[in-house]
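Practice problem 4.
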């Protein structure tokens, strides 16, 4: 696929209903219009997306040889350790954030964004580009270590204040048994157990309306992201640069790692998108428990207000182009 075809795919992505709904949410936030989803609807759509992704991944995993998954899982664990460390030290050079807040940021950027990942899969499916079905497993694997490493990096700063010492048992329980990981793992097990025949019975719900539900969810995400933009001017150039540059660095690393362990262009792009994304669900819950002195406004401004829209609009087609380019050499 040449550069012109990649540009065409990027333009198609920009006009896809989920992305246009996200832009509508941004506009609504700028106009201070109230189009928030009712809380019950927001919770239901997030649970639906988690379970649907998990089930489809489990169905695909059933037909995958174990030997094909070992390498990608191993490299994903390594990425889950390296990325938060890199984020932590880059933030030290680029910003004036203290150790606790840098650790909280590292936890967010070491973890993943389900919606960014889902948008990447929709991009690939819409373009007819194949990708490994086990990439959902990689999403689940990458969700946990980044948060733990980020909290450990912040521990030195937190330990200096007795009231800020992380409660590791409660934090690990929040991460492992939180909604994101539990529904993804549960969906993987359900999909693997039921297989293609069983999935065919529920496909009209978990497959047929998937893009519609994602569109509704991204409308809400656009509104939330737009509300964070009001504080961008106060963030400082270092934080803005980090929120826009670090995802490209981490995404490129993820793409290269995926290709190196034998993944195709589509799968490597999906892994790169995971590495480039930043959590705004699981990580905030964990850092709230473990690092009460961390400023959630900074992490949400960066992860949700800047990195999330950047990845949706620019990052996804960019990581695909990077995967295409690197596939010629790796």
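Answer key:
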């Amino acid at each position: 696929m040449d550069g012109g075809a990649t540009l065409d795919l990027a333009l198609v992505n920009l006009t896809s209903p989920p992305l246009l709904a996200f832009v509508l949410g941004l506009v609504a936030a700028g106009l201070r219009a109230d189009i928030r989803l009712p809380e019950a609807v927001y919770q239901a759509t997030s649970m639906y997306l988690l379970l649907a992704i998990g089930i489809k991944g489990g169905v695909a995993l059933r037909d995958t040889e174990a030997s094909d998954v070992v390498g990608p899982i191993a490299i994903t664990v390594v990425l889950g350790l390296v990325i938060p460390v890199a984020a932590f030290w880059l933030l030290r050079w680029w910003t004036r954030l203290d150790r606790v807040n840098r650790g909280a940021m590292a936890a967010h950027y070491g973890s993943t964004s389900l919606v960014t990942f889902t948008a990447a899969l929709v991009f690939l499916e819409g373009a007819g580009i194949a990708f490994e079905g086990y990439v959902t497993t990689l999403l689940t694997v990458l969700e946990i270590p980044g948060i733990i490493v980020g909290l450990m990096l912040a521990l030195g700063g937190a330990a200096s204040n007795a009231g800020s010492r992380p409660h590791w048992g409660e934090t690990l329980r929040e991460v492992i048994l939180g909604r994101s990981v539990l529904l993804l793992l549960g969906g993987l097990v359900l999909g693997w157990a039921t297989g293609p025949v069983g999935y065919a019975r529920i496909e009209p719900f978990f497959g047929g309306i998937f893009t519609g539900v994602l569109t509704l969810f991204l409308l809400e995400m656009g509104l939330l992201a737009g509300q964070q933009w009001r504080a961008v001017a106060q963030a400082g150039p270092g934080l803005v640069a980090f929120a826009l540059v670090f995802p490209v660095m981490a995404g490129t690393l993820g793409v290269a790692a995926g290709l190196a362990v034998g993944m195709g262009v589509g799968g490597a792009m999906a892994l790169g998108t995971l590495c480039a994304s930043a959590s705004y669900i699981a990580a905030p819950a964990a850092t709230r428990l473990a690092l009460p002195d961390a400023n959630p406004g900074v992490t949400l401004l960066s992860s949700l207000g800047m990195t999330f829209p950047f990845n949706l609009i620019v990052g996804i087609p960019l990581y695909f182009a990077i995967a295409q380019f690197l596939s010629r050499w790796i």
